[in-house]
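Hi team, as promised in this morning's meeting, here are the two structures we talked about. I've kept the exact order from the run log so nobody has to guess. The first one is mostly here for context; it's the second one we should focus on when we meet again. Sequence first, then the predicted structure tokens.
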Amino acid sequence: MQDSPANELVIEGRVVRAAETRYSPAGIPISRFALNHSSNCLEAGMQREIRLRIGVVASGKELQVKVAGLAPDDRVRVKGFLARAGYRSADNRLVLHAQMIELLNDEAR
């Protein structure tokens, strides 16, 4: 059996707006929301400011419990894998398909 190439991302950020949920033809809930991330990373010996927005897709009943409680500006950690935004689309934008969502305590707020 051949090992699959790695495709795993863990990112922290703030929820941009409440999730929108729809249901697949099989009745599976699928929620989408966006996450703003900002950090500083070391690149070639220099500090680099990182700011990005990434779309998040959360499928299944287990994740819906977490997503339903999210509000704009909540700080979360999301773990999952990257895939194209549209399954059959020629669009090459990437979204994070969540496998774990953790609400982080934010004492600064």
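And here is the second protein, the one for discussion:
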Amino acid sequence: GGYTFQWILSYPYEEIANNITLPITIHYINGMKGEWNFDIPIKQEKGKTVVVNHLESYPNEGVSIKIKDIMIAEVSSTLEFETVSEYKQDQINFEKALDEKGNVLLHGGNKSLISRTEEKDGYRSTLRKTTSKIDEDVQSITFYPSLAIVEAPAQQLLNSSTFTLKSARSNLKIKVNSITEEDSKVTVDYQLQGFDGDRSDILKHNLAYAFTLVDNDYVDKIDPENPYPPEGHSIAKNEVKLLDKKTGHYQSVFYLNGEEKIEDFSLQNTVLQFDFNGFIRTKELAPFTVQLSK
């Protein structure tokens, strides 16, 4: 008698015809190899859509979220929502959503980007997210949004041996105590401030990928949309040493004669960059509840 389902796919054309035939071939099933061919007729039907249009703003974070509508299907549903952020790279998502009975409708997971534009109020994105089945008698849904901050790397020209690198949007800091060049290696001695030091093994591992030495003449040539360090003019690999867990005291050693190099290296013409993004915790925003008028 047929089956009603919701199908989410990437399609390279503007529209899919209302009536199509989908060819499917099964090569392996229930432990048996073979080739079974089917032509499955598919008829598009207008889904049941609940229009919500609920706007929630978080002015302190420069973020707003609008729940636009929910398309309800037999087994799963699709949530369409819109986000506006002051910052282009910020990631806004829902950690979970519950109906008024406490049933989990979604929990983390991926989202699909439908459109993205830059407007006067910020960077506007329209997204879709799949949820579990929503019962017919559900009257409200509570959403638990989160914000993952993305900021540009902090940087400092190495014409001074002591300075502090600060995160632009968190309380994280790195106090550089000294920088020395000796035996074809550069050693950066520093202390972490505001970092979670409970898992020093993970912290040490992440620090090895967060620093980059960049030729000052090439810093402005790095594409922020695709921020790969310029080959021959940067060194990202470093060996991290934990000196004192209690005080967050570390050293990072960069080898000037390794696979990565900076031509005509000099401390006075080199920038130390640090990417704080991997250390800034995802922020849980205040949950909000929307009413469903079916």
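Starting points for discussion:
The first helix runs from residue 200 to 207.
The CA atoms of residues 25 and 31 lie 16 Å apart.
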